[in-house]
Design a protein that fits this description.
Elements (H helix, E strand, L loop, with lengths): L1 E3 L5 H10 L9 H12 L3 E6 L2 E11 L3 E9 L8 H16 L4 E6 L4 H5 L4 E11 L2 E9 L2
Parallel strand pairs: 4-5
Antiparallel strand pairs: 1-2, 2-3, 3-4, 5-7, 6-7
Amino acid sequence: MIRKYTSSDWNRIRTLFELNTPKYFAPEEIKDLNDYLETYADTFFVIELHNEILGAGGYHIIGNKLGRLSWYFFNPKSKGKGYGTKIVQHCIDEMVSKNNLESIEVWTSQYAEKFFGKFDLKTVKIENNFWAEGIHLYLMRMTLN
């Protein structure tokens, strides 16, 4: 089940995040995630099954024409089961239905480029060692009609 994040989820979200460091995120990014949630909690979601949070992710709107997918991570044991696809599609659908966007983007890494490519996001910029040593920025974007 996809539902909105609440502050009572923080400890479980932090644990999920830690399961994805240091391969997908630098450990110090936990502060950035916390800051993000203080601002954009209303458009951040969790996937929960049997009272266990399996993954999370969200979006925010920049200006009034750009939507950005943000902070997607999952319990390693739940990867490959379609939960990521469901939550990303949920966020894209919500962004498009509530806004008059021209484009959607994601700032991700080389580890998730193929995954986000499934949503017609195309890599437009790569910056090596952007997030941390060995974790590169892949800026991906799709233009909406």
